[in-house]
Amino acid sequence: MLEIKVQCDCGQKFKFDVEPAGGRMPFGVNCPVCGADGTSKANEILRRVLPPPVPAGASQPPGPPAPAAAAPPRARITMPNRPAAGSPPAQAQPAEPN
Ligand SMILES: [Zn+2]
Fold this sequence. Notes:
This protein has 98 residues and is an alpha+beta fold. It is 11% helix and 12% strand. Strands 1-2 form a two-stranded antiparallel sheet. The longest helix has 11 residues, at 39-49. The termini are far apart. The structure holds zinc ion (ZN). The site of zinc ion has 7 residues, from loops.
């Protein structure tokens, strides 16, 4: 659904929602002030706002396919930086004076 804004030759602007059929207006519109036909103006606007038709078979860009080695990066699991169980304490205890 597109919102189309048309300015009539009389200067009146009006807008409406339309679902384009084949890139064109599926119904006619008329200026709410002077009653002039605004369908052709709406069709021009539709031609500007709609993307150009893509020829069949042109969706794939030319070029070699991506190598299989270019896999997406995996999430790296990191272990928390802490000493393993049973390791000596980081601070050396001073020897007891006798
Ligand atoms: Zn008008």
